[in-house]
Amino acid sequence: MSLSDVFATARAESRAALIGYLPAGFPTVEGSKDHLRSMIESGCDLVEVGLPFSDPVMDGPTIQAAAEQALSAGFRVRDLFDVVAAVADAGGRAVVMTYWNPVLRYGVDAFARDLAAAGGLGIITPDLVPDEAEDWMAASAAHGLDRTFLVAPSSTEERIAMTARASSGFLYATAVMGVTGARDVVSSAAPALVARVREHTTLPVGVGLGVRSGAQAAEIAGFADGVIVGSAFVTAAGESDAAVRALAADLAQGVRSAVAPV
Amino acid sequence: MGQFTPTPHDPDARGHFGPWGGRFVPEALIAAVDELAAEYDKARLDPEFVNEFKRLLRDFAGRPSLLTEAPKFAEHAGTRVWLKREDLNHTGSHKINNVLGQALLTKRMGKQRVIAETGAGQHGVATATACALLGLDCVVYMGEVDTERQSLNVARMRLLGAEVIPVKSGSRTLKDAINEALRDWVANVDDTHYLLGTAAGPHPFPLLVRDFHRIIGIEAREQILEKAGRLPDAVVACVGGGSNAIGIFHGFIDDTDVRLVGVEPGGSGLDSGSHGATLTAGTPGSLHGAMSYVMQDEDGQITEAHSISAGLDYPGVGPEHSHLKDIGRAEYFPVTDAEAMEAFALLSRTEGIIPAIESSHALAGALKLGPSLGPDGLLVVNLSGRGDKDMDTAVKYFGLADGGQA
Ligand SMILES: Cc1ncc(COP(=O)(O)O)c(C=O)c1O
């Protein structure tokens, strides 16, 4: 199963894919495996396994605090592959979402090799743009991993086209100009951005930043191929596994009840 | 050569100095750094911009800054020492050079809001000052630890009309203040300029911050030729993010007989692990938007820097310094907190100049370097700032309040 299959399956069911994010090691390494498995069982088509990083400049307070907790509990990069393997062994699909420095430090090729061996499908790179990604292009090709780069409301047409060409699997559209964190309303910039992206590519487009409810998921499912939920899962994981399951179920319902964009 | 003349030492179009630099930032910020780069490319060739910048440096900041011989301090160094007096600039450090340049760029881009990070508070004060002068709104992020050890500067910023936001995440120092400023910038990039205070960050910051500080080296070179009749054997500067150092280095970069010496914060000593000597002890990595040497563990987690000097307490460094180190054009070594404080007291007592603790690292470096040059040798030390802001630290360190003597 590859990333394109994930989106093809959802498309065949006339719905958007649900993509849930949780940092590995939060609240503990074993705890994150349990929650990620619950997310899969309760309706996530794909999980993004976050790599906790000391300086998460793209993240708001919720994910910052989760990363800090994981790191102070002793999380190590090698634990990431263990968590990804646990998801894959449970029949789930996982990509990694990581700031670039830990990958650089591990060695780009070695990281790709070990992620592929663990059963991971690709990497989402919030602070790596294709302009600087020569090593990653080579390593991902060598190890059969997908590359998800991000586009933003501020991206020019030229950059959207370039970023889409460099990506595979799916493209990540950041719905708002800002950091991660649950928000009450879906950004008005998101549908316009997705429409611009579609001018340049047939790749599936996932929309993230700020989604936390089934109703919001339904709204995004009306114009995007994937709904990405991060901080809300982190908050739920801070409560209980039951909360994680309930959130996934609510969101899974949402991506199956798309409302047409206004 | 003018301050903005392109040189063979400029980075490539994407901001690379050899393998260093570039842009390791979220896509959401690319449009903003592209806009800034394009605006700077126009501004640096626009006589109106260049003249306005020069006018502010002269009539507001008080440039040119003096070059002062320090003969009694020099006795302790065993060689002749001249000080480039950036401490005499308005607001008390070199930081004003870069701030005035970027504030003018902010105006050109039609943005009304400025955000900045600050460690020692010198960059924050300079930014708040320029914003007051030019009528811009100003928000300064400052690590909570630094707001405590540099409380006087917090008060100065607030008096100047800036909002100071203490940053409570991570190590609560400069690195975390930069993280928070970047988060603000992503969310408000339409109307906000991030006025970065050192020669680090994504392209074009390392280039334009360096260029705004090139005036230090240009003046120093002319002044030393006039006063001493020759070029120095070495130019010495402290390195936090690297802006004062790169500014003075560039005046001498093509004088290959002049050694360029950067002095890093050695904290309690390199063996203690408690320091901020990024170039001496760091490894390649990406932090705050550029590839450079960084202090990190084997997992690529950024480690905390430690220095008695808030302005040097940073686990990263500007990419051009990584390049100059690699090609061997500049050399870098650390001095400890204790050595810096000794130099701090020595300059105060021998020359009647109280230096910033940051700059005291450069002075301590000169004391180490001097003996090898001998009495005919000649050093130019960049005295990047004045020490008024450091009185709290000095009072505690030397026990001055209890009748102690430095
Ligand atoms: C007086 C002074 N010197 C030096 C520095 C270090 O910065 P940089 O390495 O960018 O010159 C600072 C930073 O706050 C400073 O205030």
UniProtKB/TrEMBL annotation, chain A:
CDD domains reported for this sequence: Tryptophan_synthase_alpha
Location of the active site: 48 (proton acceptor), 59 (proton acceptor)
Molecular functions per Gene Ontology: tryptophan synthase activity
Keyword Lyase: yes
Highest taxon above the source species: Bacteria
Pfam assignment, any one: Trp_syntA
Reactions it catalyzes: (1S,2R)-1-C-(indol-3-yl)glycerol 3-phosphate + L-serine = D-glyceraldehyde 3-phosphate + L-tryptophan + H2O
PROSITE patterns the UniProt entry points to: TRP_SYNTHASE_ALPHA
Keywords of the record: Amino-acid biosynthesis, Aromatic amino acid biosynthesis, Lyase, Tryptophan biosynthesis
SUPFAM superfamilies the record matches: Ribulose-phoshate binding barrel (SSF51366)
GO CC annotations on file: cytosol
InterPro entries xrefs: Aldolase_TIM (IPR013785), RibuloseP-bd_barrel (IPR011060), Trp_synthase_alpha_AS (IPR018204), Trp_synthase_suA (IPR002028)
Function as written in the Swiss-Prot or TrEMBL entry: The alpha subunit is responsible for the aldol cleavage of indoleglycerol phosphate to indole and glyceraldehyde 3-phosphate.
Alphabetical list of HAMAP family matching this protein: Trp_synth_alpha (MF_00131)
Name under which the protein is recorded: Tryptophan synthase alpha chain
UniProtKB/TrEMBL annotation, chain B:
PROSITE patterns: TRP_SYNTHASE_BETA
SUPFAM superfamilies reported for this sequence: Tryptophan synthase beta subunit-like PLP-dependent enzymes
InterPro entries registered for this protein in UniProt: Trp_synth_b_CS (IPR006653), Trp_synth_beta (IPR006654), Trp_synth_beta/beta-like (IPR023026), TrpB-like_PALP (IPR001926), TrpB-like_PALP_sf (IPR036052)
Reactions catalysed: (1S,2R)-1-C-(indol-3-yl)glycerol 3-phosphate + L-serine = D-glyceraldehyde 3-phosphate + L-tryptophan + H2O
Residues modified as N6-(pyridoxal phosphate)lysine: 95
GO molecular function: tryptophan synthase activity
Span of domain Tryptophan synthase beta chain-like PALP: 63-385
E.C. number(s) listed in UniProt: 4.2.1.20
A GO cellular-component term linked to this record: cytoplasm
Pathway, per record: Amino-acid biosynthesis; L-tryptophan biosynthesis; L-tryptophan from chorismate: step 5/5
Class of this enzyme: lyase
Keywords: Amino-acid biosynthesis, Aromatic amino acid biosynthesis, Lyase, Pyridoxal phosphate, Tryptophan biosynthesis
Keyword field contains Cell division: no
Entry cofactors: pyridoxal 5'-phosphate
Family: Belongs to the TrpB family.
Subunit structure: Tetramer of two alpha and two beta chains.
Function comment: The beta subunit is responsible for the synthesis of L-tryptophan from indole and L-serine.
UniProt xrefs under NCBIfam families: trpB
Record-given protein name: Tryptophan synthase beta chain
Organism: Lentzea albidocapillata subsp. violacea
